[in-house]
Amino acid sequence: MALHPVLEKVTARVIQRSRPSRGAYLAHLEAARVKGPQRGTLSCTNLAHGFAAFPANDKLVLKEVKKPSVAIVSAYNDMLSAHQPFEHFPAIIKDAVREVGAVAQFAGGVPAMCDGVTQGQPGMELSLFSRDTIAMSTAVALSHNMFDAALYLGVCDKIVPGLLIGALHFGHLPAVFVPAGPMTSGLSNKEKAAIRQRYAKGLATREELLEGEAKSYHGAGTCTFYGTANSNQMLMEVMGLHLPGAAFITPGTPLRDALTAAAAQRAALITEQGQEYIPVGHVVDEKSIINAVVGLLTTGGSTNHTLHLVAIAKAAGVVIDWDDFDELSAVVPLLARIYPNGDADVNHFHAAGGTGFVIRELLDAGLLHDDVTTILGKGLRKHCAEPFLATAGEGGVVFKDAPAESGDLNVLRGAAEPFSPDGGMVLVKGNLGRAVMKVSAVKPEHRSVEAPALVFDSQEAFMAEYKAGKLDRDFVAVIRFQGPRANGMPELHALTPALANLQDAGRRVALVTDGRMSGASGKVPAAIHVSPEILAGGPLGLVRDGDIIRLDAASGTLEALVASDVWHARALATADLTPNQIGMGRELFSMFRNSVSEAEQGATTFPLPSPIQTTVSLHDAGNIGNSMPGSDEDFLINKKA
């Protein structure tokens, strides 16, 4: 199947735009690569420290400096349901790599915080910045230079992007991502949302609300709705960083453990000392990043990835922006309906055909690049599969072709009969800046709103007005000073039930904010991540109560309908942000607030790779292109830039 022309166009533009930084990145990668095990560069004292506490047989392998050593970098903690299963993974991994002659060491842990626990709390203002903290923690774990590959154990919102950003800064090492899987289905997401809306109206007690939440979030594993955590898992599969179909196998099952063991062995086999060398810096390139954007759009994934994918790409020297998302969204069909874009949860999606089905449909439609490298080698089509336990006595995992037909057309469809011809994520822009709008769960009649602005400096201020019964009218809520520089860009989920109730009552309502809503946003039109934010000079600070705001997904419009002379005569609003900078550890994150980039640039605190002088020979540089696709030509052009 020929590639879709828009996919080709956007990819070519990204490759051209990224040429200097991608070339610099590949030069960094090659400069860090050594022949033989990485630990061979250490002094005897360094190396002795690195294996002092290890069992005798493993110590011997490390001492001989012949076989690969695999790092385990884990986001385990036992408070968060999605990460609690990781407690037992290191033992499985260590046993598995011994079977292929390698050694695994627990290199380090990274923090893992949950937006679901911190929602509406001061700690939520650390959430976005925890991504870059996790990346730095990953770098610390790998800084000992003991390792030839790494396994990354993470699932949720900022954890997987942070781990991948950290991994890409060690791009010469192979990387395999190891998920824990979703919890089994409990109370349906539709019922949970209904209880939340009743509680917001005062029609349900706190005890009823807590009981509903506990029945929904009831065991080990990821939350089952399609928010950022499960979007992460989908993207790791589309980018070829998981074993096929690994994302949505529930924890505590034989298949889950077998997949963990298989992932560990695969990491050992793709080292310099293994069957084939596949560094993560070549798995993640311009084409795999475009594949990730397509995978996000076709499944109605989390808008948080309009930040995270930009940041991940940046770590690999690839530059993407919201225009790329917007153009692809116009031609990528919506193939999945998973809550909040439908009633099903991720377990239902997996049972209907899952990620292997989606990848195959998109490849056959010319909407994904097959000519990429994954952890399985050349070609994404190898990931059009799902895992099963091998027959009795054999052990391990076998992979079978993904189902030819969807098991439930209400949840999953082929490219020839999509739920929608577009991906449901649009760029809106105008005199208020640029913003992302997710419309896959918004009915067409609600996708355009023109109404007076009501301006708030926090979601708490909005909720106080709502509870006081003062918002029973048409309006556009402008929630400002919620960007990364202002207060760390917390998610604003408290607004969703209230705005949904007003919309259900017949009011024309919408939200415009420089904050986040994520994949759990729903049926109310919302322009989010408005960029630049006010503290970066963004025009959202010029809006006043009563200004008519036009938000229109069809035309891509985000405008304040204010006379030009009046608009330009206004001064940017100010706010006392001191309360957002103290308490719950927020003072420790001032360096992030002071240095963070704009939302459209990924809200990152690290730069694009810059060119370096290297002593790599042209012969050695050419060798990395023998089995790798992508930008090796760019590498040769830019390595002496």
Keywords:
single chain; 8-stranded mixed β-sheet; alpha/beta; globular; disordered C terminus; 4-stranded parallel β-sheet; 641 residues
Structural write-up:
The protein has 641 residues and is of the alpha/beta class. Helix content is 37%, strand content 13%. It is built from 24 helices and 16 strands. Strands 9-10-14-13-12-11-15-16 form an 8-stranded mixed beta sheet. A 4-stranded parallel beta sheet has the order 2-1-3-4, sandwiched between helices. The longest helix is centred in the first third of the chain and has 28 residues, at 5-32. The protein is globular, with a radius of gyration of 24 Å. The model is unreliable at 614-641 (pLDDT under 50).
The secondary-structure class comes to alpha/beta
Figure out the total of helices.
24
Largest sheet features: 8 strands, mixed
Shape summary: globular
The residue ranges in which pLDDT falls below 50 over 5 or more consecutive positions are: 614-641
**CA-to-CA gap between the ends?**
38 Å
Report strand order across the widest sheet: 9-10-14-13-12-11-15-16
Strand elements, count: 16
Helix amount, in percent? 25-40%
Average pLDDT, all residues? 90
Specify Rg, calculated over alpha carbons.
24 Å
Strand content range = 5-15%
Concise description?
It contains 24 helices and 16 strands.
Topology:
Layout: H1 5-32, H2 44-51, H3 56-64, E1 69-74, H4 89-98, E2 103-109, H5 115-118, H6 127-142, E3 149-153, H7 159-168, E4 175-178, H8 189-200, H9 206-216, H10 228-238, H11 254-269, H12 280-283, H13 286-298, H14 305-315, H15 322-329, H16 346-352, H17 354-364, E5 373-374, E6 377-378, E7 385-389, E8 397-401, E9 425-430, E10 433-438, E11 448-456, H18 459-467, E12 475-479, H19 484-487, H20 495-504, E13 509-513, E14 526-531, E15 548-552, E16 557-560, H21 564-569, H22 590-595, H23 618-623, H24 632-638
Parallel strand pairs: 1-2, 1-3, 3-4, 11-12, 12-13, 13-14
Antiparallel strand pairs: 5-6, 7-8, 9-10, 10-14, 11-15, 15-16
Helix pairs in contact: 1-24, 4-11, 6-7, 7-14, 8-9, 8-20, 10-13, 13-14
